[in-house]
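Exercise 3.2. Students should predict the tertiary structure of the chain below and write it as structure tokens, then compare their answer with the key that follows.

Predict this chain's 3D structure.
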Amino acid sequence: MDLEQQIQTLIKNAPQDGNTPKIVEAIAPGLKLLAEQLKHWQYYILQTSSQNWVLTTLISKSGVEKRVIYAFPNLKDASLSISEDNIVAVPIPTIHILFQMIAIQPLDSLIFFEKAGDLTTATEVKREDVQKLINVYLRQYQASSTSNPSKIPPDIT
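Answer key:
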């Protein structure tokens, strides 16, 4: 599924409440911009048996904590990182991963491994950068919808 198809699926599967599909459509160019900087159209994400994404806490030498989710380029690489029986690797479209990042509150970054077999080099996508980019598109959407300026709920921006 290419990026445009991923966006259409995301819009189609958004809650049909009158606002959400329009908001998803408004932020889609930002998500696509981010996805185009990555090398794959889908990545494997580790999930628990209850379908929660596996969050890993990294601690730097200076003691700074960062909560990340790893995205693997293939099933083999993802499988090498499974350390518990209740964890599975699931293929997820790149646009959907970036979109979900917004909803996972404790998440600081997504770590995308780009090259199969290489788990030492990765691309980090920071939550704060994604949020800033999406806010730009939300403000543009809000400005363009002058006939009904309250279309975006205040808790989204």
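Discussion points: The chain is about 40% helix and 25% strand. The CA atoms of residues 26 and 115 lie 31 Å apart.
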